[in-house]
From TrEMBL:
Organism name: Halogranum salarium B-1
Name of the protein this chain belongs to: Arylsulfotransferase (Asst)
InterPro entries: 6-blade_b-propeller_TolB-like (IPR011042), Arylsulfate_ST (IPR053143)
UniProt-annotated stretches for the region Disordered: 236-258
Residue ranges crossing the lipid bilayer per the database entry: 397-417
Biased composition annotated in UniProt, kind: Basic and acidic residues: 242-256
Residue ranges the record marks as coiled coil: none
Domain of life of the native organism: Archaea
Sorted UniProt keywords: Membrane, Transmembrane, Transmembrane helix
Length: 426
């Protein structure tokens, strides 16, 4: 008769072997993210890189990729975010950096955030900067800025949870999220709404991404400095009176960088759900529904995508942040170009068009709203990937096999120890 310790040893050894073989085989068979692919060397892609390190708050940079090569790079801030090429060829970029001494009302040294105007070229340099101090490096940054026809700069403020315009260093208008959402006592002390994007979609109409509410708002600007109203909510909460306003996480969850395609269609990086979605407003219900989605490219699942732009050629440019890559796909999801980035990118724009207001709609995909998640396993996988730098190819099946391996080792170890204790007592 086989002893309990022999069975235990076999179980534990089998569990370890299963885990090791799973990793080796999966790594060997995994699709390659590659470096740059595609044959068109004329593509110019402007990239804002959040960087790396703890909290992704180190090694930020702005750079231009021409075809498959980086032609210039500026790496002088903790993090860079949204990037835009202006009409005169200079580059505007949201940023966050530490080490400032002008910090009122906070202690020095401190972090400041805002935007910079950069002169691109072989030796890029910062021409000007607008910034203000914030309490911490985390969840306080200006992620997006846009120059308006009036000459004002429109930007987000994640620290105070507002959008505002500035001209010649002075605030000329602002909308406070507390006028629509129930606010905590001090928004600067918590990651309340995480407003991360604002775009002008029409005269005096701004599309706002409220990440932690899973919603997009259309805010209409009035005549006065504080005059405004919310005129549309994408992914509205059907029962806002019952608690904090939150949209359906199966439609959007912790999204980034929406692009207004037309009055009734918007393209969004649906970050927490690991996909890019095109939402259409239903003619019957008026609700916004998923019409097209992309959850993988080149056989690799998207991992916290944070930007998606519908290009003039009809393709979609995706910034797949935690996979450290930028991919261009067509409507069927086929990859036509990709670039492996050295660190974590936040946003990318194809030049010279940049991110436009208005773009081609894709046809409705009847299966587009299916998240294809596996209960518990998908949740565990997302939590692990958002906390640790795990291989991009890890999937729900790897989570399952890891749990099985752990169970075998635990069971085997228990059998072995119980037999060991029994023999010692005998």
């Amino acid at each position: 008769m086989v002893s309990r310790d022999t069975v235990g040893t076999a179980l534990a050894g089998g569990g370890v072997a299963l885990f090791v073989v799973m990793l080796l085989v999966s790594a060997a068979l995994a699709p390659s993210l590659g470096s740059a692919t595609g044959t068109d060397g004329s593509r110019e892609t402007l990239v804002g890189s959040q960087g790396g390190g703890p909290g992704l708050h180190d090694y930020g940079s702005v750079y231009l990729v021409t075809g498959n090569e980086t032609t210039w790079r500026l790496a002088d801030a903790d993090s860079y975010f949204d990037v835009t090429q202006l009409e005169n060829g200079s580059v505007m970029a949201g940023f966050m950096d530490s080490g400032y001494t002008d910090c009122e009302p906070y202690d020095s040294p401190c972090v400041r955030t805002g935007f910079r105007i950069i002169q691109p070229g072989p030796d890029p340099e910062v021409l000007s900067e607008y910034s203000f101090p914030v309490r911490t490096r985390g969840n306080s940054e200006v992620h997006d800025v846009e120059k308006l026809p009036s000459g004002e700069y429109l930007m987000t403020d994640m620290d105070a949870e507002r959008i505002f315009t500035v001209e010649d260093g002075e605030v000329t208008w602002q909308w406070n999220a507390s006028s629509f959402y129930e606010a905590p006592p001090d928004p600067t002390r918590t990651d309340w709404l995480h407003i991360n994007d604002v775009d002008r979609i029409a005269e005096n109409r701004y599309l706002v991404s409220v990440r932690n509410a899973n919603q997009l708002l259309v805010v209409e600007r009035g005549e006065g400095k504080y005059d405004s109203q919310v005129v549309e909510v994408v992914n509205a909460d059907p029962t806002p009176e019952e608690g904090p306003r939150r949209g359906d996480p199966d439609v959007l969850e912790k999204q980034h960088n929406p692009q207004w395609l037309d009055d009734g269609a918007v393209l969004v990086a649906d970050s927490e759900n690991g996909r890019v979605v095109e939402l259409h407003r239903s003619n019957e219900s008026g609700e916004w529904e998923v019409a097209w989605s992309l959850s993988e490219a080149d056989g690799v699942s998207l991992r916290w995508p944070r930007d998606a732009d519908r290009l003039d050629n009809g393709n979609t440019l995706v910034t797949d942040s935690l996979n450290s890559r930028i991919v261009e796909v067509n409507e069927s999801g086929e990859t036509v170009w990709s670039y492996r980035t050295p660190r974590v990118p936040y946003e990318a724009e194809r030049l010279p068009e940049g991110e436009t207001v208005g773009g081609q709609r894709y046809d409705v995909d009847e299966s587009a709203d299916e998240l294809n998640e596996i209960p518990v396993l998908s949740l565990l996988l997302r939590a692990a990937k958002s906390s640790y730098p795990l291989p991009f190819w890890l999937s729900e099946i790897h989570v399952l096999l890891t749990l099985v391996s752990f169970g075998m080792v635990l069971s085997g170890g228990t059998l072995y120890l119980s037999e060991f204790v029994r023999r010692r007592r005998a």
